[in-house]
Amino acid sequence: MYSNQCQFTLDIRSGDAKILEDIDRYIHQQALLIQQECNTAFDINNISYKSPVVMNEALRQLIIHSCEKLNLSYRHMNSGAGHDAMIMAGVCPSAMLFVPCYKGITHHPDENVTWENMAKGTEVLFHTMIALDQS
Prior knowledge:
4 helices
């Protein structure tokens, strides 16, 4: 790499393929504008693309029911991370259960989950497994 070059990567994630396409198109459009205005060049390469994967709705509903049964708050979240569930969803019904982390920080040395939240997550998983076995 020469001293007048810059190299970086972008990790763009969404549960919606259309959003990913729109962002990719926008980046290319902006790069063309910058090239023209600043007399520079861009070399944009997509080194990896994973299509968004939708988790199984029936399993998601079982998790929600378990949260409600335990009187726990919950919310639906898309995960852009390449978890095993992303691969397994092509083989069998899959879903993921997340527990709250301090300040929402995950996959980082500062990640911190309280014992209380781990216990709640374990209870939700247990009740979901029981419900799955009974369905």
